[in-house]
Design a protein that fits this description.
heterodimer; A: 858 residues; alpha+beta; 9-stranded mixed β-sheet; 26 helices; 20% strand; elongated; B: 157 residues; alpha/beta; 4-stranded mixed β-sheet; 3-stranded mixed β-sheet
């Protein structure tokens, strides 16, 4: 059955709820709201990481997931308290999803069985776990993109694993590290020394040695003669802190062929420095989870070397690249006393060298005796000469930009030029740009100067990206049915229902909204750009007109701004091929996708929850429904209620659950509207009191039961007779169930500090006239509420209306409308002679004319 | 020709008529009647808050509401609709229909004879009568309807 419509079915629950019970449940509800908000925020954060722009480590994933689980537990527990254990299936559902996540999280990283050594030319893109990040990149540069790198090979992670497993080295290391208290520095140093010594003393197996020698011979053949090599670590884990830590692993230059095995073990041993041990132990890693590959690369007879940044890391929007250059071995080998040459080159035209700053180099680093380098004085003829010629600068720039294009993100490139003037790429990695605020501009897309008219230049970025398409303004749920693929969804706000069309939208723009809302989460899931809080955008744009939404810099342009779209494609951060990123991807598939998009859908049930997001969506919906029926199920002793003294012939009793009323004299049993502090009630009352109270007091049914056929046969009449209009309030909340005459209506609203908590929901049914007339009145109310921003569901004479995720002032306006509607449409079902009459009343409402009926003095 | 039909056979269900609560305004009554006339119905039923029929509104009732002199003897005066409408001030249009309706004083039982119904209608000047069955109002009977019956009987003789 359609679950949302279950609201219409009066719950038959024998127990009534007293004041204390209500306060408790209200508290449960508040807890659900809070946990729901926190959970959505965390999901948003995970998705932000999924963009590939922000770095993170495994520990982050573990703690984030565990925090999420806690929030989910809170939501479920509190929902079950709120509903008297109606959702006992939910804990199982959560466990099922969490189990899947935990399985991914605890899955040990497998080290694939490959050869002990792999030549650079044989490296393929998917080999990162075998060759490590650094060498995988080199392999791609050479084999996929065809750029020159020095000949070389990788000693694989499988060799690493084999080495450790032989001679029980793994057990021995584990034994030492498990017992180690990393907080004691002396102990840490001692353990490090022991393990490093063990690594040094344990021989490599003959198979590994043979493999290394064989690969070296190939290298020598490729170069044309035996040459010394550089040996560098290439760790397979590349999460943030580890990556920065990876720099601590040792590298050696100018290693002679017969010493490769020795230096290989020295690189391996560097993984057990005191700092390294401290790092992975404190993060809860096993050292074997960070397998090490080692690159062996022919030494290039360098003339000069240096670094290229394809953008300025601090001002990436500027259109130039930077080259640092020194004579001799690379800058990293030179030390701080040398100032390298600095060139700025136009990114548009590498021939255009924007500036050259000559450095100050006294010494040059050259290969010396085996395994070492030497600092010698820079030959005098080079002192006044730039390191690079103009044509070298241009060639290097063009090559670097080409690399950036291939990797689809700004690059940090280490290069060398040999004595014959040939350029080699030694390393390339994504350039670390200055970190920006999460909610503001990211630096990966440049600002494009465009002549297109700007329609809006403010807004909160809820999902980054740039998209364009024709405007489609959505005012109600009905509008979604015809949503054209590729359109830009423009609406005042975006309730969870709108998620149904997100995957078809090219962008989403709203006047209000929160980055932690359901729709924002889904937009990020589908990588649909979303810009919220763009004031008056529904008035600024015209349906069908094409616009471009820049949800990176927060602009909306008229028309399709092609250069902007292109630049975004260009600058789109690459999907990282790191292990930790892959893990995040695997985990988020159980976290963020939303399958339960439609509360009216057949699948809106606990058993269809596949993700944590589904569970929060379901629980939140159910919590709201529970709150709805709460007022009706409650009963309060006389003393707990305060009668509202008002001129209208209506008995309203207020029950204050906290800060809903001013301090009232304890003896007075009545209060005036001025004493009320409940924001939702005040808004409702503003509406109720601004229209004429037409007709008599709400009927006392006792007197005419005999005349009314419906009542006579209706067993709930006795219940109705004893009914009072109770309003349960706090400063931010209101629940108002009422029977004015023959219909039932209930209003439940919350106006708090967070937009995503704010809502108003309204239910209306019944009447005294025949069913057709009752249906027409329900339709009239539905039309009025729709016109005022509500989403409505109509079924015969049952109406359900809701507004949510809206700013406080909007909810207040909607409550004022509800106040007007509940008073003026009282017994109006009688008048619903035909559809023309419905339209007439609707038009009067739209005109602001609510004077239906006259005040009757009895 | 058999004189057969009793009241129950000639009843018109209440739903067929426009309804208003007695506190509805003249303006609302105008709207209702305007729409009903298109269906060939010239009466608005007036109910109380308990959905009990308490009166009927005919076009004359409504006109009297708009222009009180219609209730008096006719005197020669400028006759333009605009004069009439100028007196139909907003204030007057907001008067409750209760003030202008003809009270539905009587109800007649579904088993009663047409003759009795006719008698009451003529003597009480009611164009229609509520019909009740076991204490419940089941509809109304119109003078027109009974009159048609009478014509048939008279002409058949």
């Amino acid at each position: 059955m359609i679950s949302l419509l279950s609201i219409f079915q009066r719950r038959k629950r024998s127990e009534t709820i007293d004041r204390e019970g209500f306060v408790q449940r209200f508290h449960n509800y508040q807890e659900i709201l809070r946990a729901n908000r926190d959970a959505l925020e965390l999901m948003a954060e995970l998705q932000q990481k999924l963009s590939g722009v922000f770095l993170f480590d495994r520990n982050y994933l573990i703690t984030t997931i565990s925090r999420l689980e806690n929030y989910l537990r809170t939501i479920i527990d509190q929902l079950n308290l709120l509903s008297d254990q109606r959702y006992t299936k939910l804990p199982e559902v959560l466990k099922r999803v969490m189990d899947l996540i935990q399985k991914e999280l605890s899955r040990p990283q497998e080290i694939p069985k490959v050869s002990f050594t792999i030549p650079f030319r044989a490296i393929k893109k998917n080999m990162i776990f075998s060759v490590g990040g650094k060498c995988a990149h080199l392999g791609e540069i050479k084999n996929t993109f065809g750029f020159p790198i020095p000949p070389g090979f990788v000693i694989s992670t499988y060799a690493f694993k084999t080495f450790l497993e032989n001679n029980n080295l793994h057990e021995k290391i584990n034994h030492i590290l498990t017992a180690l208290d990393i907080k004691t520095l002396a102990e840490l140093e001692e353990a490090s020394k022991t393990v490093q010594q063990m690594v040094g003393e344990t021989p490599l197996s003959q198979e590994i040695v043979d493999s290394i020698r064989c690969s070296y011979e190939e290298l020598a053949k490729e170069v044309g003669k035996p040459v010394p090599v550089a040996i560098r670590s290439s760790a397979a884990q590349e999460d943030t802190t580890l990556a920065s830590f990876a720099g601590q692993y040792k590298s050696f230059l100018n290693v002679p062929p017969d010493m490769i095995e020795k230096y290989y073990k020295l690189v391996i041993a560097s993984q057990f420095s005191p700092r390294a041990i401290y790092y992975f132990k404190s993060r809860g890693f096993e050292y074997s989870e960070i397998p090490m590959a080692v690159g062996v690369m022919a030494m290039v007879p360098v003339e000069s070397a240096g670094i290229v940044y394809t953008r300025h890391p601090e001002i990436p929007q500027e259109d130039f690249l930077i080259i640092n250059a020194v004579f001799g071995l690379g800058i990293s080998a030179v030390g701080g006393e040398t100032t390298p040459d600095l060139y700025r080159v136009s990114r548009k035209d590498p021939k255009n060298i924007l500036s050259q700053e000559r450095g100050k180099q006294e010494e040059v680093v050259v290969s010396a005796s085996p395994g070492t380098v030497a600092h010698i004085a820079l030959p005098p003829e080079k002192k006044n000469q730039p390191v690079l010629t103009a044509s070298q600068i241009t060639e290097l720039s063009a090559l670097s930009l080409e690399l950036e294009k291939k990797f689809a993100c700004p690059q940090d490139i280490e290069w060398a030029i040999d004595q014959e003037g040939k350029i080699f790429i030694l390393q390339a990695r994504p350039l670390k740009l200055r970190q920006h605020d999460r909610s503001t501009k990211t630096s990966t897309a440049k600002m494009i100067k465009t002549n297109s008219p700007v329609l809006a230049e403010s807004g909160a970025i809820a999902s980054t990206g740039i998209g364009s398409g024709p405007v489609y303004i959505v005012k109600s749920f009905e509008d979604l049915k015809n949503f054209p693929a590729g359109a830009v969804l423009v609406s005042h706000h975006a309730p969870p229902d709108y998620t149904l069309v997100v995957d078809r939208a090219s962008a989403i723009v709203t006047e209000v909204g929160s980055a932690a809302s359901h729709i924002a989460t889904v937009a990020r899931e589908f990588m649909v750009p979303a810009l919220f809080n763009v004031s008056r955008i529904t008035e600024i744009v015209t349906p069908g007109e094409p616009i471009t939404v820049d949800a990176i810099n927060g602009f909306i342009y008229q028309g399709v701004v092609q250069e902007l779209l292109d630049s975004y494609q260009e600058a789109r951060p690459p999907f990282k091929d790191t292990a930790i990123y892959q893990l995040l991807k695997k985990i988020t598939q159980y976290v963020t996708p939303l399958n339960l998009t439609d509360p009216r859908g057949q699948n809106f049930k606990p058993e269809y929850c596949k993700t944590l997001h589904d569970i929060t969506r379901f629980s939140h919906e159910m919590a709201m429904q529970e709150m709805f029926t709460l007022g009706e199920r409650s009963s309060f002793p006389e003393g707990a209620t305060k009668k509202l003294n008002i001129p209208q012939p209506l008995d309203i009793y207020l029950i204050d659950l906290g800060k809903g009323l001013n301090e009232v004299k304890p003896l007075s049993s009545g209060v005036t509207p001025e004493d009320v502090k409940s924001r939702p009630f005040l808004a409702l009352w503003k509406g109720m009191s601004q229209v004429t109270w037409a007709g008599p007091r709400p009927v006392n049914l006792r007197g005419f039961m005999s005349v009314v056929a419906r009542s006579a046969s209706d067993p709930t009449v006795m219940e109705k007779l004893t009914y009072k209009n109770y309003v349960i309030i706090t400063d931010a909340y209101m629940n108002f169930s009422t029977r004015l005459g023959y219909h039932f209506s209930s209003i439940d609203a919350f106006i708090g500090e967070n937009i995503q908590d704010n809502y108003v929901q309204f239910i209306f049914n019944g009447g005294g006239a025949d069913l057709t007339r009752r249906m027409r009145r329900a339709r009239l109310i539905s039309m009025i509420l729709n016109h005022n921003g509500f989403n409505t569901i109509l079924k015969e004479d049952n109406l359900y209306a809701r507004g949510e995720n809206l700013e406080a002032e909007t909810i207040e306006k909607m409550l004022i409308v509800l106040g007007i509607v509940v008073v003026t449409t009282r017994q109006m079902d009688m008048a619903m002679y035909n559809d023309k009459i419905v339209d007439w009343y609707f038009q009067e409402f739209i005109k602001g004319n609510y004077s239906f009926g006259a005040t009757i003095q009895k | 020709m058999q004189q057969k039909k009793n009241i129950k056979e000639l009843v018109t269900p209440l739903e067929n008529y426009p309804h208003l609560p007695y506190w509805a305004t003249l303006k609302e009554a105008l709207i209702q009647l305007g729409s009903a006339l298109e269906d060939g119905i010239n009466t608005v039923l007036v109910f109380n808050e308990a959905y009990k029929l308490i009166g009927i509104l005919t076009p004359s009732d409504i006109l009297r509401g708009i222009e009180p002199t219609f209730g008096h003897r006719f005197r020669e005066r400028a006759e333009f609709w605009s004069d009439l409408l100028s007196t139909a001030t907003n204030e007057r249009m907001m008067e409750p229909v209760k003030r202008f309706m003809s009270p539905a004083r009587m109800a007649i039982d579904a088993e009663d004879s047409l003759f009795k119904a006719l008698h009451i209608m003529v003597s009480e000047k009611q164009p229609l009568l509520a019909i009740q069955e076991q204490g419940k109002i089941i509809g109304v009977i119109k003078l027109d309807t009974i009159f048609k019956e009478i014509i048939e009987v008279v002409l058949a003789q």
